[in-house]
Specification:
Elements (H helix, E strand, L loop, with lengths): L1 E10 L2 E11 L4 E5 L6 H8 L7 E6 L2 E2 L8 E4 L11 H11 L4 H14 L15 H13 L5 E5 L7 H16 L3 E5 L3 H7 L2 E6 L2 E7 H7 L4 E7 L2 H8 L3 E10 L2 E8 L5 H8 L4 E7 L4 H14 L1
Parallel strand pairs: 3-8, 3-9, 6-7, 7-8
Antiparallel strand pairs: 1-2, 1-4, 4-5, 9-10, 11-13, 11-14, 12-13
Helix pairs in contact: 2-3, 2-4
Length: about 300
């Protein structure tokens, strides 16, 4: 759906983006993560044609990005901003008309989404009477009520309580099932693991990692396993001593224990099972894959050192 080819962006002498190359598949949820100032928002603004790249090209389904693509995009910016004196329904109609809908279409779309989110009662409330979370929900609706095929969400979960976070994540899954392409920029690493198909980590204007979330987690695994067993701890240690290091153990009662172990030479799940199954009663063996938060910190720290 989207090809970003050698995109650079300068602000005077400062380079904000340095040779960005990314391919974002149609019908996927694509995460863009990175520390503050990495260039994420600059790239998003270029995709939305708020900024122009200093060099490089962006293709949408093989066609160079141009003004005709505006209506195909929905955009929820990180900087929340609604006209505080407007009423909710009027504001949603206004936003829909900016994206090309006539007044009748805009009214129908706004009412449909207010019904869908069960907030019809807000229609005649002024924006300045809403809580922060309520206003953010209105702005989320405003970014997608023109039925865009590409949806860019910059920190969409910021300020939401857990119930509304789940509401937004469920809606993103629905968009994906409908074949829409979602670009998802966030600092919430749990949501990246939960919902993104692929992720790109941008640091100092460059892509320093780009892959499927599951493959990134497998790539940076540390060889740690969690094991729950019943039996003698000495027998446990003897069974592991040649190939594994015991990181921690806790006693659960009735001779049940839970331990974290680490392989010394790249041993696998099967190696753990083979080492322990004859000596102990096993209830659980679970490989401990790193979370996206751990990978994020590792790669950013490593890049800073380099």
């Amino acid at each position: 759906m989207i090809e970003i080819i050698e995109v650079n962006k300068f602000f005077n002498q400062k380079q904000a983006l340095d040779g960005i190359n990314l391919t974002i598949p149609k019908g996927s949820v694509f995460g863009i993560i990175g520390p503050n100032g990495a260039g994420k928002t600059t790239l998003i603004r270029i995709l939305n044609q708020i900024l122009e790249p200093s060099a490089g090209q962006i293709l949408i389904a093989g066609i160079p990005l141009n003004a005709q693509h505006v209506s195909a995009f929905g955009y929820l910016p990180e900087e929340r901003g609604l006209y505080r004196e407007m009423k909710v329904l009027d504001h949603l109609v206004f936003l829909a008309r900016i994206r090309g809908l006539n007044r009748g279409q805009a009214l129908n779309a706004a009412r449909t989404w207010l019904d869908k989110f069960e907030i019809q009662a807000w229609s005649n409330k002024r924006i300045d009477s809403l809580s922060k979370g309520m206003a953010q929900k209105v702005q989320f609706i405003g970014s997608i009520l023109h039925d865009p095929q590409i949806i860019i969400l910059d920190e969409p979960l910021s300020g939401f309580d857990p119930l509304n976070i789940q509401l937004i994540l469920d809606q993103i899954r629905t968009f994906k099932a409908e074949g829409k392409t979602i670009i998802f920029s966030t600092h919430n690493m749990n949501s990246v693991e939960e919902i993104c198909d692929q992720v790109a980590l941008i640091h100092q204007g460059k892509v320093i990692a780009h892959d499927q979330v599951a493959l990134l987690r497998a790539k940076y695994k540390t060889g740690a396993f969690k094991v729950r067993f019943q039996g003698n701890q000495i027998a446990f240690a003897n069974a592991l001593w040649t190939g594994f290091e015991i990181i921690s153990t806790i006693e659960l009662g009735n001779q049940w224990h839970e331990a974290v172990i680490k392989s010394r030479q790249g041993q696998t799940f099967n190696d753990v099972f083979n080492a322990l199954s004859s000596a102990l009663t096993l209830q659980l063996i679970e490989e401990q894959l790193p979370g996206m938060q751990d990978i994020f910190l590792k790669l950013v720290t490593q890049n800073n050192h380099e």
